[in-house]
Design brief:
Strand order of the largest sheet: 1-2
Number of domains: 1
Structural class: mainly alpha
Largest sheet: 2 strands, parallel
Length: 77
Amino acid sequence: MDKFGISTAMLSPVNAARNEFYAGTEKARGLVRANNESGAKIVRDRPDCFGLFASLPFTDQEGSLREIEYSLELLSK
């Protein structure tokens, strides 16, 4: 990033390639959560360089609502 003069990058998980993210199962919720926690750690380690678009299990309404709430709490710390 420094080499090309990029000061900030947004992490945006690409989960479309993994059908497990959309299965509406606890496994899918766990995969999304792990993905978000990994991204949040990068943001916490380098808040001057990174932001994060949280991932959601879109076909799982309840899971998505939970992950939105969790991500907002997680990323605000």
